[in-house]
Amino acid sequence: MRRSVMVTGATSGLGLAIALRLASSGYEVIATARSEHKADRLRAAAAERGVRLSTVLLDVADASSCRQALDQVAEQSDGGPWALVNNAGIPLAGAVEDIDDEAAGRLLEVNVLAPARLARLVLPAMRRRGGGRIVNISSLGGRITAPGMGWYCAGKAALGAVNDALRMEASPAGVHVVLIEGGGYASNIWHKAADGLKELAADGRSPFVDLYRAAEAPLRAGATLPAPEPVARAVERALSAARPRARYVIGTQTRMSMIADALTPHQVSDHVKRVALGAAGSHKLVEYVARRWCRPW
Ligand SMILES: NC(=O)c1ccc[n+]([C@@H]2O[C@H](COP(=O)([O-])OP(=O)(O)OC[C@H]3O[C@@H](n4cnc5c(N)ncnc54)[C@H](OP(=O)(O)O)[C@@H]3O)[C@@H](O)[C@H]2O)c1
Question: pTM higher than 0.85, yes or no?
Fold first, then answer.
């Protein structure tokens, strides 16, 4: 029997790469989109790749949309998906001082509460079957915090904590819960983040206007990073391994950044992070190292 996998936020970037790869590998992929138009484009992308997947409409920030989507998925798949990949996520760039409760609340709703809510919805069927997998897509930002990205990093750090608790709680029922920690990959997230910074800079009242103006171009350059295939491969490994790891850290650079951040005195790492975002000038070599190694997203 083909194993069903629900992938949230599959209309672009990492989610699209994950959905297409899993479909190519023989999983029965149920990919979620926020509109019919995007769902059509998603199915067209799959057809172009020569694979099949089905789509379900889902806004992860809306609890009733989550319930409806899961009801639909349950009809297609023995009461619920064999695996859930919590990929949908949003960026939020801006200094903590400039981000209001509404924006921070939305970030936490989409990036933290929604993955936990969806896990609650799929777990009863997984428990009944005595097995299943939940994969949460996190980032280097869950381990390393940078100026101007406090809320995004807080969301990913919180997702890591929820993931770890869930892993310990669900494992006796045969459900494996896995965190994927990626570095930087090409996707729409960079332009979305840069648009947010542009808006904050346009306001003009922030003490961080210079940081926002300087950081916009490096953020937009993120869209030219490598394609997110390594993340899709890691998700496939997490689904196919008999005993998946608790966390998959993707790429040497991501691992090195985590180690360097843990070992470096904060006076040094704070400076390097500010340089990486263009918030501080420095020696050319420091600027190179900062941009090369410090992309906490
Ligand atoms: N890009 C990176 O370098 C990187 C690295 C590590 C981790 N990540 C994580 O990877 C995940 C995907 O990000 P991405 O970089 O691929 O960005 P992206 O291209 O902007 O994709 C985000 C996906 O999430 C969907 N989404 C956003 N809000 C949603 C909501 N309320 N309900 C349902 N779907 C929603 C988007 O749908 P719409 O098209 O409708 O907006 C889109 O399909 C995120 O969790 C992100 O934090 C990204």
Answer: yes
